[in-house]
Amino acid sequence: MADIDKAAIAFSIAIVAIGVGAAFSLGAAQDAAPVVSTPSVSTKTIEPKIQADPFADIADKVRQEAPKVEEKKMEKPAEKSVKVEEKAAMEKTKEKSTMEKPAGPKTYSVNIPAGTSVPGCEESNACYIPADITINAGDTVNWINADSAAHTVTGGNPVDGPSGVFDSSLVMAGAEFAFTFSDSGNYDYFCMVHPWMVGSVTVN
After folding, report:
1. For 105-118, how does the pLDDT look when each residue is reduced to its tens digit (9 = 90+)?
2. Cα(22)–Cα(34) distance, rounded to whole angstroms?
3. Which residues are annotated as a binding site for Cu cation?
4. Check: CATH 2.60.40.420 for 107-203?
5. Pairing of β 198-203 and β 185-190
6. Phi then psi for 194, rounded to 5 degrees?
7. Residues 6+ positions from 117 with CB-CB distance below 8 Å
């Protein structure tokens, strides 16, 4: 009987040992399996670490230099506008000096129209056209004979006669006579062939 009890005890121990071994092997297998864990959401705020900016010194220098650059930029347009004003003033002075300079000698034309060899042109003062002309000293008057008859352009007047200042002698049809007036004054002239023909030149 004692042998049966011992056998039962040994059998029980064997079963327990098998169970423990199985438990250990299952535990080892479970440990070897990959572990899947659910992600956890953290509500804790993590403050980022503030690192020192290695370019902070350069940025400060740039900020300090910036106003100086702006001032320089502001000065340049001002200088430019001054130069523009100076140039405009110089142009104005140049124009003024050009305007003040008297123009060079000029030549003025006076026509002796057709039909003046017969009295009548004196009534409308059209024996010489223009009959009275104003020029500057050094200018020239050129008389053009458009009439079919010959005429003269003689300094003086029909009453007192020739002054001797200028005389064309006979200017034939289609011909011309020119005289340059060097001195200022008033110069009357007439045609010695047709004394009703009179004109004048005023020289400034």
Report:
1. 999 999 999 999 99
2. 20
3. 151, 191, 194, 197
4. yes
5. antiparallel
6. -125, 85
7. 147, 148, 149, 151, 193, 194
C-beta atoms surrounding 88 within 10 Å: 10
Q: Which tens digits make up the pLDDT trace of 133-178?
A: 999 999 999 999 999 999 999 999 999 999 999 999 999 999 999 9
* Residue appearing with tokens 């740039």: 62
**Domain spans of the chain, in order of start:** 60-101, 107-203
- Binding-site residues sit at 151, 191, 194, 197
Instruction: Report how far residue 38's alpha carbon sits from residue 81's, in angstroms, rounded to the nearest whole number.
Output: 75
CB 204 within 8 A of CB 134: yes
pTM above 0.85, yes or no: no
